[in-house]
Amino acid sequence: MTSTPQSWLTDMDGVLVREEHALPGAAEFLQRLTELERPFLVLTNNSIFTPRDLAARLVRAGLVVPEASIWTSALATATFLSDQLPGGSAYVIGEAGLTTALHEVGYTLTDVAPDFVVLGETRTYSFEAITKAIRLILGGARFIATNPDVTGPSAEGPLPATGSVAAMITKATGRDPYFVGKPNPMMFRSAMNRIEAHSESTVMVGDRMDTDIVAGIEAGLETILVLTGSTDLDEIEKYPFRPSRVLQSINDAIELI
What we know:
CATH topology of the largest domain: Rossmann fold
GO cellular component, one term: cytoplasm
Number of helices: 8
Helix content: 25-40%
Largest sheet: 6 strands, parallel
Number of domains: 2
Keywords: Carbohydrate metabolism, Hydrolase, Magnesium, Metal-binding
InterPro entries: HAD-like_sf, HAD-SF_hydro_IIA, HAD_sf
Active site: 11 (nucleophile), 13 (proton donor)
Structural class: alpha/beta
Mean pLDDT: 94
GO molecular function: metal ion binding; phosphatase activity
């Protein structure tokens, strides 16, 4: 591992929090980054909430993270679209996290001849909205999705998420979406641009091999897998790639800062 990492990227759920509670060492890890003035971003594929919403959620868990230090798939998607077609238009299926991000980069939200159909996560997917998206894509709109996660967590169990709805739209249109969020390394690159980080001195901490770790490797970063989330130690062997380090929790990463 880089002897003295200068910048840090870290996943949120499974690394810093789990079921609205801070994981051991998370507060101390964030405090250490702040004390040493290490640039960092907390990354999440969740496109429902704005950074302000997520910062408030973290405060309730006892973790202090500034809004500016949170990078979502919605923000990454808005950045990507603004680079592709500045001042464009989009038909959006999603919540405030996504619509706010698009408004902030100057996009117009419309259901009349949009440049893009943008699919994000919502707890209220409607048949009417999905039908509209299908017809707009068939009419020429380009298909973008914030992230490929097929399920999301809830207190009652898994819920269908962006990837599942995207698959339904693809089946109806024959058009595959471009997924911007993890495991697309573009999300990491846009995050690093935000904090002016360099790949050779940046570390990614995550709890999933198939998103956090593979995307970090493809972005040229050092990677740390923590075992407080969705990956068990024996599952690592299923993958043809390896993280730079495997730690029990974020608490064990504090000494590496």
